[in-house]
Amino acid sequence: MSLKDKIDMQRLPSHIAIIMDGNGRWAKEKGEDRLFGHLHGVESVRNIVEGCAELGIQYLTLYAFSTENWDRPEYEVSGLMALLVDTIRKEVPTLNKNNIRLHVIGEVNMLPDAAKNELKEALDETSGNTGLNLIMALSYSSRWEIANAVKQVAIAVKEGKIQPEEINQDTLRQFLSTNRFPDPELMIRTSGEYRISNFLLYQLAYAELYFTPTRWPDFRKENLYEAILDFQHRERRFGKTGEQVRVNRV
Hints:
The chain has 9 helices and 6 strands; from the N terminus they run αβααβαβαβααββαα. The chain has helices at 3-6, 23-29, 34-55, 74-97, 113-126, 142-158, 169-174, 221-232, 242-249, and strands at 15-19, 59-66, 101-105, 133-140, 186-189, 208-211. Strands 3-4-2-1-5-6 form a 6-stranded parallel sheet, with helices on both faces.
């Protein structure tokens, strides 16, 4: 029996988030330039997007580029932006063929014009698709996102649209860049690092975290299945006791 056959299709996470880590180290281990790793990481993106679509996962968020990544060497940033533009241009027909809708979260205004133009076209061209929602976190920082949400709440209060005593968790959620999507149930980080690196800090409050030593360019569907099987063997309690959760299942 394959790993895929072992998955309980009735208990799939509706939203998976992935920190795609290890491209540079993978390349260095092979005596290659870091951009070589990023190039091969694109193949992993294709494979995992396809795997999620085949399983019927509803939402997949990929941490593609953080605001901190702008501080990397100029040649690497330029190469990444060129790779981003080229990849988006090539992948749109495949996204449409597989009924996948593209979304973007982050400070997109910081991206080069060519990248912004390609993204806009891709968002427009896939907007009618109803299958997997592929969310790319580009120039994204969770602290930026939360600070921006707080600013928007403050403006709404100043304009009299919200009363301070009415502010609750749902209020803040409405102003997050992920307000159209459910919170991730499973977060995967590749390459053996045990941290979430300013990624969806608010949204991952009750996500199951899965860390694997596999570098992102080597991460494939079988690795995804392993993560989902691990998720399905966990008891999600949301602050309740295990006994309460089991009683509610009956």
